[in-house]
Amino acid sequence: MSKKHNRTEAQKQAGKKYDEKRAGTRFKSWTCIVYPDSAPCNWRDIINAEHVQWVESPLHDKDINEGDEQQKKPHWHVLLLFDTVKNVGQIQAITEQLGGTIPIPAKSAKGLVRYMLHLDNPDKHQYPRSELKAYGGVDLDELLRPSSSDRYQRIGEMMDFVDENDITEMHQLLKYAKQKRFDDWFPLLCDNSAYILGQYIKSCRHGKELTAHKEYKAKADRLNDENKALRSRIGEVQ
Fold this sequence. Notes:
CATH class of the largest domain: Alpha Beta
Radius of gyration: 31 Å
Low-confidence stretches: 1-5
Distance between the termini: 132 Å
Largest sheet: 5 strands, antiparallel
Helix content: 55-70%
Number of domains: 2
CATH topology of the largest domain: Replication Protein E1, Chain: A
Structural class: alpha+beta
Shape: elongated
Oligomer: single chain
CATH architecture of the largest domain: 3-Layer(aba) Sandwich
Order of helices and strands: HEHEEHEHEHHHH
Number of helices: 8
């Protein structure tokens, strides 16, 4: 009885070690790089045939090597999202058909999608969100949803824009955001930041009107005092 019990415990320990080892090699999110000059023309169809969710970056054709300042070879970043964990061999079975690089785990799907646009790297070329492509039902809005700190930073940027450009009406800010900042300002204004920006614009406008009124009153008072002084001098002369 004791011998059988020992074997069971040994099997449990072996199974535990196997699971721990396996956990470090299997992931739900994977990424690779695909090059236009080596990928088959139907490389997107190859991925779609797997019926998985995935994201294709804009073509990165303006990336620069930090070391020699030379332009990098044009490429796409690809993010593959699975419902269950996969090992590198399972992913390579897909990526080898694309002529892509060896796949690696994507530690943060959100972080990688933001990198596809260089959203957190202002020193790098900013690729447009309109060229970011989602397949299989990927919710790009959710992946690109800014954190609280990002949202506060964008709100601060819009407040500075209001101050620097003498914005007096909300429609002016909305129109600019739609035309020039569609990827970051415009979604915030449409989703949850319009009220605070609208109040800020209203308060700024009121403040300017109040200042103008005070300046007008001060000027009027000065003119009135000058007129009184002039009338007094005229009376003394007479």
